[in-house]
Amino acid sequence: MKTNFTNFPQNTIKFFALAIFALLLVNCSNDDGAPEVFEFKEFENLSEMPDVDDPEIEFAEPDLGSVNESEATKAMIADFESGSGDLSDATKENLTAVGNFSDGLTTDFQDEAQALDAAKIEELLNATELTGDYAALAAELETLPASVAALFPTIAFSADYNRAQDLTKEGIVINDLMANLMSQAGTGPCFDIALASYNKAMEAPIAKRDEQLNTFSSNLESRLVTVIARFDDRQTNLHTIVDNYRSLASSISTALLGYANSADDNDLKLQLRQFALLNTIQSRTVINEFEKEATDLIEDRQIEETETVENRNNETIEEVNSNFDAVKAEADALLTAAYAKCHNQGSGS
After folding, report:
1. Which positions ≥6 away from 47 have C-beta within 8 Å?
2. Distance from C-alpha of 172 to C-alpha of 316, rounded to nearest angstrom
3. Which of 142, 155, 2, 143 lies closest to 68, judged by CA?
């Protein structure tokens, strides 16, 4: 049997070949013809930055102690004030102790004692530095027998003077922890969308971190200003206290001069004038020592409070940055996983 073959034109063959190829292309594309969509909704569940507390710091006022009058001298003045003319045995013994002590001094201060008046007492109590016989007398008063020392004011130091000043300051460091993960990224829309999702998710943590750091910076500034204000107030208060102590010492020495002027006995006159001068010089020494020690205490307290405020600020900053690091590490892990997903999809292009 003879078989006949129909010869198709060459153009017809090419047409069918193109039609079949086009049909294959259509079957390999998306059904609706839309471009591929990349989504990374996992970034929407990124943890939030927690709040960080920064309560006010309570500071106690330092106890400066005091300069206390001599009870023996107060009793002596009361004895003279009574106006009875009869001095107690204790007063007589104290005045004798002053006379004997004065006689044993190498500094000849009899002329100064005789010339002493209220104006000179004020001058000596407020003098920045003593000179001449007054300076020599002050040096000799550094070592006193107990019977004479009991007649002069003393300093009662508080426990605050024994506080150790061992707080140390730490530098304040604020780091921007935005990481660069671009070394893991490829190119194409998948990677672009992953990074954009990451950046969008990190906007809130970055904003809250910056807000917290700004708040704590403002708190630090305000607290440091308050520390300085407290220091100034304490200095002013100390000056008032010292002025009052000097006024009291002046009144005692002036009172002794008044009793000397009204005394009939020359030996008693001399003893009272000697006592008035010695009380003035020793009171000045004691009050100045108190002022120096109290000033040091106030300055130490300012340093301590400054360090406390700065340490608190460092702690809050460290907590904020630690919280931010944790959120960022979570976001970084999500971005790393997103990049891996893009690579698995053939570079997302």
Report:
1. 326, 327, 330
2. 10
3. 155
Question: Which among 348, 344, 336, 40 has a CA at the least distance from the CA of 187?
Answer: 348
Give me the mean pLDDT over the 48-66 stretch: 94
Q: Using DSSP, state whether 331 is helix, strand or coil.
A: helix
Mean pLDDT for 289-298 is 96
Distance CA 329, CA 179 (A): 9
Radius of gyration of the chain (CA): 45
What's the CA gap between 161 and 155, in Å, rounded? 12
Q: What would the pLDDT profile of 19-46 be if each residue is shown by its tens digit? A: 444 444 444 444 455 556 677 788 888 8
Q: Is 8 exposed, middle or buried (0-12, 13-18, 19+ CB in 10 A)?
A: exposed
Q: Which two tokens stand for residue 99?
A: 């006379």
Please tell me the distance from the alpha carbon of residue 139 to that of residue 131, in angstroms, as a whole number. 11
Neighbouring CB atoms inside 10 A of 212's CB total 22
Residue 263 CA: distances (Å) to CA of 82, 100, 201, 274, 314: 14, 19, 94, 14, 69
Q: What is the pLDDT of residue 44?
A: 84
pLDDT of the residue at 194: 83
* Cβ neighbours of residue 50 closer than 8 Å, sequence gap 6 or more: 323
Sheet strands (E) in the chain: 66-68, 154-156
DSSP one-letter string for 263-274 = -S-HHHHHHHHH
pLDDT tens digits, residue range 184-227? Answer: 555 678 888 888 889 999 999 999 999 999 999 999 999 999 99
- Listed residue (34, 321, 4, 41) closest to 201, CA to CA: 41
Residue-level length of the chain: 349
pLDDT of 8 over the 60 cut: no
What is residue 193's predicted lDDT score, i.e. its pLDDT? 85
